[in-house]
Amino acid sequence: MRALFWLLMSATLVAGCRHAPPAASTHYALHASYPLPGPGRWDLLAMDSARGHVFVARGDRVQVMDASGHLVGTVRGTAGVHGIAIVPELQRGYATNGKSNSVTEFDLKTLHRVRDIPVGGVSPDAIAYEPLTHRLFVFNAHSDDASVVDLSAGKEIARIKFRGNPELAESDGHGHVFVNIESQEELASIDTTTLQVDHTWSLLNCAGPTGLALDRRTNRVFSACQNHALVVTDASDGHQVARVPIGDGPDGAAFDATTRTIFVPGGKSGTLTVIREDEPDKYRVTQTVSTEPSARTIALDPASHRLYLPAARFGPQPDDPSQRPPLVEGSFHILVVVW
Fold first, then answer.
1. Contact, 105 vs 97, CB < 8 A?
2. Which of 338, 44, 306 is nearest to 169 (CA)?
3. Helix, strand or coil for residue 241?
4. What is the enclosing helix (H) or strand (E) of 17?
5. How far apart are CA 309 and CA 265, in angstroms?
6. Parallel, antiparallel or unpaired: strands 240-245 and 254-256
7. CB neighbours of residue 155 within 10 Å
8. Less packed terminus of the chain by CB within 10 Å, N or C?
């Protein structure tokens, strides 16, 4: 009996270690590369952690991949899709359609389309769900504003104007949504009750801020800049508390609240910068993971601590510099980084 007891105890300990969060000194590494079929470029992605599903914005559709790399479904009819918001409490997902100026609502279980919600802004891009008001904040890239969508009514109820084009955004869960204003090198704070911009703060020496992540416990906002820097802002008063070096060409950022770690992909450098938050105003780079050129956006699964980054290969640059190089057919894939 004693031998059986220790055998069971050993198995329990091993299982516990397998699911324990990574330590501060954890080493992250590229674990897998999963191909996703079909044509089209990509933009942002999102995670349904409860089901282990990764949602990828892919041209005119949203592709859904499971944790093993299998394509398990597709949400179609999302022309010019950019951003995706997953709302577990409603069992719904939402995708912004840049070409039709609308938001597609879909069921997280069946992946069926539920409805399309028109917005008044032009080229909806990033999207954030605000849990206190149960509203969506849809950021329109070509009209420099945000559409506020009431989900119970299924319609846009307000528009919020900015001084430049909005990029990625996140809700703090306590009545504010923060968004990078790319063209002005600013961070805007939206009061989700009054539906007004209550603060606009300069992101000093932060060229073209795109990726954004948020530490809700310390009230710190992380803005990824195009001049190889991550700027950390104290969202209580807007002052800059830290700058951390990152790779080239970021278009996303993620924060793991369990491990106090920020991740910033560099799409031009082909790297993932891993940054440890030692204190609210103290940060250090702990690792630079080699990924691939073009891996510029990112999603974190907070349950498994896995990171997902889309990437692909491209052909030669056309003679016209305003044209983008063609995507090599069949080269699109999702990189998985684990600890």
1. no
2. 44
3. strand
4. helix 2-19
5. 8
6. unpaired
7. 12
8. N
pLDDT by residue (tens digit) across 228-250?
999 999 999 999 999 999 999 99
Strands (E), 23-123: 29-35, 45-48, 53-58, 61-65, 71-76, 81-87, 92-97, 102-107, 113-118
DSSP state letter for 314: B
Task: Supply angle C-alpha 281, 284, 286, rounded to 5.
Answer: 150
In the chain the domains, ranked by start, together with CATH numbers, are 42-338 (2.130.10.10)
Residues 191-201: tens digit of each pLDDT: 999 999 999 99
Q: Which two tokens stand for residue 274?
A: 């891993």
> Which pairs with CB-CB distance under 8 Å and at least 24 residues apart come from 133-137?
133/192, 133/193, 134/90, 135/192, 136/85, 136/94, 136/103, 137/169, 137/171, 137/177, 137/179, 137/190, 137/192
pTM of this prediction? 0.92
